[in-house]
Amino acid sequence: MAGIYCHIPFCKRACHYCNFYFSTSVGAKNDIVAALLKEMTIQRDYLEGEIVDTVYFGGGTPSILPAGQLSEILAAARTVFHVSQHAEITLECNPDDVHSQSLNAWNEIGINRLSLGLQSFFDDDLRWMNRSHSANQALESIRVVRAHGFDNFSVDLIYGFQLLTQSKWKENVMKVLELGIPHVSCYGMTIEPNTALARLIARGAAEDIDQSVQAEQFLLLMKWMKDAGFEHYEISNFAMPGFRSRHNSSYWQGKKYLGLGPSAHSYNGKTRQWNVSNNSLYTSGLRNGILNFESENLSPTQRINEYIMTSLRTIEGCELDVISNNFGDAIAAILEKATRKYIPDSLVRIGSRLVLNDQGKLFADDIASSLFFETLA
Ligand code: SF4
Fold first, then answer.
1. What confidence score (pLDDT) does residue 101 get?
2. Which atom belonging to ligand 1 lies closest to the Cα atom of 130?
3. Which of 74, 126, 172, 210 has the most CB atoms around its CB within 10 Å?
4. Side-chain half-sphere exposure of 244, counting CA atoms within 13 A
5. pTM
């Protein structure tokens, strides 16, 4: 089973914290769609005939595209690849794009999962982030999503940012629980280089992130979600049983995926490649039948380190059998031994898998990188 990711590189406005690749001039929509279709034909063999179990429209803001263009992309994917009849087809959307007309159209073209970029239920937070929607639109979007029969949907929330007090954080999470939302992705605010937020902090117009407040909000989040019956199946993701994101899970399980569109990444088990992060270079190349991308062959060291990094973020953890089967028993034994140093502080559990405890999840990236192999013979 494999996945397809389509990157739609347009947003109405730039959120102050965002460093994804997107453009706020949406004039090139038609060119991007035409180029995506061309890229599919060039990349038709990338997934080596595997069944495509998930299609994910991300960005940027894919809900900006008219449903007709989303439909055109899906139809082409179904023609070029072996897309399963039961594929999970997700659309990331902003609450201000979610209304009866768009939902009916998305339903009709086969979108069966929505991911809503809510971020907060407070207007002052949303204004501070420079989001294009209001708190009322966030609430209304959830109501209409349900009313149009989309039971499988997710919302994004951000925690650990300068305006978010503990009581506001609690209200945001409780609102999600009260509304019975089946999947939530929660991200700690990070200050990415070359973002408006980084510049505001650099010139003293905004405070830096308080890491201790962020950590406390993450710990509270884990407790509240667990008490409410959610599976914390990946560091940033919580799902009610049966509502995990199949697409994102396939990344963490190391399945193949093809990324289409500017800046999109692809992975086939042996190599990783990424398209140029520039709309006009992407479209002009494809007009001439050329896909502008870079790629790298993954060495055994890169593959094991990637597995350690991604698997430790998941509820299943890092399976020692997977390490043994792919890299040998001796390597699995070295990894197991190296992980033992985190037992006294109750950061990990070790059995047939290495699994982070809640405290360990606060340091997931540091723990994973401390376990990386320098070179694998
Ligand atoms: S809508 Fe999403 S992709 Fe666009 S600027 Fe905001 S966070 Fe970034």
1. 97
2. 6
3. 172
4. 15
5. 0.96
- Closest ligand 1 atom number to CA of residue 94: 1
Report which DSSP code applies to 1.
-
In the prediction, which pLDDT does 376 show?
83
Q: Does 222 sit in the ligand 1 pocket, CB within 6 Å?
A: no
Q: Is the CB of 8 under 6 A from ligand 1?
A: no
Rounded Cα distance, 365 and 215, in Å: 14
The string of DSSP codes covering 317-329 is -EEHHHHHHHH-H
The whole-number pLDDT of residue 179 equals 97
Ramachandran area for residue 83 (φ above 0: left; ψ -120 to 50: alpha; else beta): beta
Closest CA to 46 of 70, 80, 79: 80
Q: What is the DSSP string of 143-177?
A: HHHHHTT--SEEEEEEES-TT--HHHHHHHHHHHH
* Element at 347 (helix H, strand E): none
DSSP 140: H
Measure the CA–CA gap between 125 and 197, rounded to whole angstroms: 13
71 by DSSP, 3-state: which? helix
Q: What pLDDT is stored for residue 227 in this prediction?
A: 98
The answer to whether the peptide bond before residue 68 is cis (omega within 30 degrees of 0) is no
Q: Are 259 and 2 in contact (CB under 8 A)?
A: no
Query: Domains of the chain (ranges plus CATH)?
Result: 2-252 (3.20.20.70), 300-370 (1.10.10)
Residue spans of the chain under pLDDT 50 = none
Q: Which residues of 301-325 are buried (b: 16+ CB within 10 A; e: fewer)?
A: eebbbbbbbbbbbbbebbbbeebee
Q: Point out the ligand 1 atom lying closest to the alpha carbon of residue 17.
A: 7
Using the atom order of ligand 1, give the atom closest to the CA of residue 19. Answer: 8
Is 262's C-beta closer than 6 angstroms to any atom of ligand 1? no
Out of 5, 18, 91, give the residue to mutate to test ligand 1, the one with the largest number of ligand atoms within 8 Å of its CB.
18
Beta bridge partners of 52: 2, 83
Strand order across the beta sheet in which 318-319 lies: 318-319, 353-356, 348-350
Note the pLDDT of residue 377.
Answer: 64
